[in-house]
Amino acid sequence: MEFFYPSVCLGCGKDTESLPLCTQCLARIRVVDRDFCELCGRPIRGPVHTSFCTACLKRPLSLARIRAWAMYRYPVDELIQAFKYNRRQGLSAFFSVRLEAVVQSDKFLRSADMIVPIPLHPLKRWWRSYNQSALLAESLAKESGLGVAYLLRRNRMTRTQTRLSPKARLKNVQGAFSLRNKVESSIIAGKKLILIDDVITTGSTLDAAAKVLLDAGASQIYGLVVGGAWRER
Ligand SMILES: [Zn+2]
Ligand SMILES: [Zn+2]
Q1: Which ligand number lies closest to the CA of residue 223?
Q2: What residues are paired with 223 via a beta bridge?
Q3: Which residues are placed with Cβ below 5 angstroms of ligand 1, an ion?
Q4: What separation in Å is there between the alpha carbon of 215 and the centre of ligand 2?
Q5: For a designed S-S bond to 30, which of 66, 71, 123, 135 qualifies (C-beta 3.0 to 4.6 A apart)?
């Protein structure tokens, strides 16, 4: 890796011995390991006698539980952008060690049977030449010993969710996923599956994918992401 890339921090650009981030930028990562919503994983501020965030109390997702390793803000946003768009596939190793620690710390995720990546639309996959969620899944599989199951396919190009309102996001992903053609429902029936993706915003993408797997007979769906792009409140 160092042959191709200068050893500079992916956050601040300073020379560093410790890739992908210098020690100062590493220290700025905000890991989400306590006081989070028991359903969607977002941090809850204030008195922590509540277990669920207001979004989940209003409209719970179909996933039993979601965990994010860290907040999607500096420097994790820089890492994920590099991972997705600048061909820094090697970052999957950095992420998967952290994701495996999340899985091991969580009694729900720890009980899962398989890892399922969120698919990209084939055109986008071709354009980018790799699916970042699949890389994360494969890398986490090596860490955890769990298998990766490619169960889902993306039916149509969905617009990038970033600039859409929560309502528009929901509509945008409705019907976006279905089971791949040759997937036998016996693989899924009664299974606990970890859906893996790079970033969560409203959770509507994970939710749409989870519904397909639940309809196919999965017993529980968990979500696991690198970054949570929730609004700070
Ligand atoms: Zn730095
Ligand atoms: Zn929540």
Answers
A1: 2
A2: 66, 195
A3: 9, 11-12, 22, 25
A4: 22
A5: 71
Give CATH for domain 31-228.
3.40.50
- What distance in angstroms lies between residue 77's CA and the mean position of ligand 1's atoms? 13
The pLDDT of residue 5 is above 70: no
- pLDDT score, position 169: 72
**d(C-alpha 102, C-alpha 110), whole Å:** 9
Distance 222 CA to ligand 2 centre (A): 13
Q: Which ligand is nearest to the CA of 29?
A: 1
Ligand nearest to the CA of 23: 1
CATH 3.40.50 placement within the chain: 31-228
The predicted pLDDT at position 158 comes to 66
Which listed ligand is nearest to 66 at the C-alpha?
Answer: 2
Indicate whether 29 pLDDT > 50. Answer: yes
